[in-house]
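Morning!

As promised:
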Amino acid sequence: MSFQGNSTRTKEERRLSSIDRVAATLALDEPVSRVRGVSPARARALDALGIATVRDLVNHYPRRYVDWSDVRTVASARIGESCTISGTVHEIKLKRPRPKLVLVEIALVDQTGLLMVTAFRQPWLMDTVEAGAHVAVAGKVEFNYGFKRMTNPYLEVLGDAPAEGVIIPVHPSCEKITPAWMRRLIGNALDATRGVLDPLPLDLRAKYRLMSRGCALSCIHFPQAMDEAREARRRLAYEELLMLEIFLMQQDAERSRGRTPVEHTTDGARLRALAASLPFDLTDEQARARDEILDLMRAPRVMNHMLLGDVGTGKTVVAAHALAAASDTGGQAFLMAPTEVLARQHSESLAPLFDAAGVTCELLTGSTSAADREAIVERAAAGVIDVLIGTHALLEDDVTVPNLTLAVIDEQQRFGVEQRRRLLAKGHAPDALYLTATPIPRTLALSIFGSLTLSYIKHRPHDNVRRTTHVVSKGDRGRAYDAASAALARGEQVYVVCPLIGKSAEERDAQARAASSGAARDRAFDEEEEQFHPAVAIEGEDDFADDDVAAAAKEAAFLQAKVFCDYEVALLHGSMPASEKRDVMERFRAGEIGVLVATTVIEVGVDVPNATVMIIEDADRFGLSQLHQLRGRVGRGEKEAQVYLVSASKQDSALARLSAMEKTDDGYELAAFDLSLRREGDILGNCQSGASALKLVNVVRDGRIIEAAHADARAIMEVDPLLEEPDHVALGREVRLLFKGKDNACAS
Ligand code: ADP
Ligand code: MG
């Protein structure tokens, strides 16, 4: 195995003729079977990993590196840190704690001690590793039940131990292509593409001191020092982002090309009348968002703006200003919401404002009668309706207005790209305003929406949150019960939230299998492993602890009998009949029920100001954003509120995550923190846009690279939108190749 460095390579690169360089660049897009060593069988295995071209192979980056300059002994390995340990296999055992769970346990010894290694779902280790073998493992050191341990480390059987100072890349691999083979194939692919042209303009490379593409590719795969790998990653992550941003901006430019954008009037009579008729003052954040939106509407450019704000932050009234400006300009506007209830609510809450402003407005939904619909469609086409509010019903072909200048889409994430596009296509170059309650941190929004502009509203009006959050262990739950009892004694009420209702481990297993996306599956596996690890740690014990997830039903019975005997405890969960749910909610609202034990159904539309304590069981099973939403149910009133997050987890990471809840009340900060803990591949979730081209970027940690690439892409697009200048031609070609056939599915 050779771990080539880049120093010779760069010299060689310099010797390459430009013809060689072009050939190397073209080679990137050849089928992977052209690479030396890729047999038809290996090509099939690579294909299963999503690798079809040479480019895919050289972009198949290492998941981690094993740094042989940092080999420790068992005794000197520090708990909680990652390192490499080599030793002799004392014993290797296959265990099947449950029918569907296979794990291999290895006892590894060196001169200083014993390391227990657990590998989940890798039964083939039984064939490749035998007692007495000399192996190296790299991973995080844990301590449990008296032993240092590693779970799912990278494991390599050593013939002769490699020389010190060598860094081995560990690429995602599979049973048919071992990590060692993957290294060999990637090395061959790098040979074939040595000297690839660099699509990054020189000025940008100089500005950030980025290495050349060829150099970055060899350094990220086969670094000589970890610094080299980091520098290579920085360069390649920047490149990924710049290309994505340019692609997104090009798409946008495409959409508005040849169209004359509307320059809205933003100081018209209707807008002023609407502002004057508001029954409250806008909060500072609302006023800023309003100004940002009106500025964009006034500008001779197509607005593509997203207004982000949690539920209840008052996005509707901000949008109302935009709608009034459209009407002042003599255009018509749509306001589309995902459900009938929401559309109706908008129409009712906006009616008094629009009346006062002289803006005519109608509601069109699926349940509008045929006769009414006909009349509305006719009036809309005649241009007498200024604002047409509705659901998907607005998308029907015969719903038209003469001059659509603004489309507002509420809860934009609930509509498909095609639907959003269809609404906008009803005008020539209408401005678009999207509203969303999803906490999307700025850097994530930039990297998936590109040219979208953003306004944030982070606080609700009258947001005097009087609420404290406490993380407690299961054993300390008494503190939460004491606080709850005290609240009940004051005549206040309590929520107890449980993650699942009495689902057995089998059921959850089935769910995990059913989860179709790879990311969801990975997550489920992770959870499973976390859940089983403590049990695995008990030597020789094969029966696993029962499902210890708090079952809401049992919990309710327990709380009624043992803890809150003097108050009524009731249960609310998703699979109860609707009438029963309504009944329970009514009685809780009326104060008859003291303690409401609920699954996450209370997330939707519960507002009981008298409820002041919330206890969330197994809080580590919820995402931070979800916990934040949940706790939003208490502490909005006059009374002080307390939230208790009960966690059985002993893992530092789980506790660190939860303690973020104690520290901040900013939903976006929490969302960013949550994202930073997830695996890179997971972060963009199921957003099927061009963002899937991001392989190296971590949308939270790489905030600065994202901001820089965003600004640079914008600057390039301003001076050379078609990427025709000599410095930009290669860039344009790469963007076309990378995003061939892709369309940005997130923004409209
Ligand atoms: P969301 O952002 O979830 O769409 P809404 O627009 O429905 O929020 O607003 C929530 C509630 O807050 C509405 O009843 C609205 O009238 C009210 N509201 C909005 N802005 C203010 C304000 N500045 N002061 C007081 N109440 C406000
Ligand atoms: Mg809303």
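The first strand starts at residue 64 and ends at 67.

Hope this helps with the figure draft.
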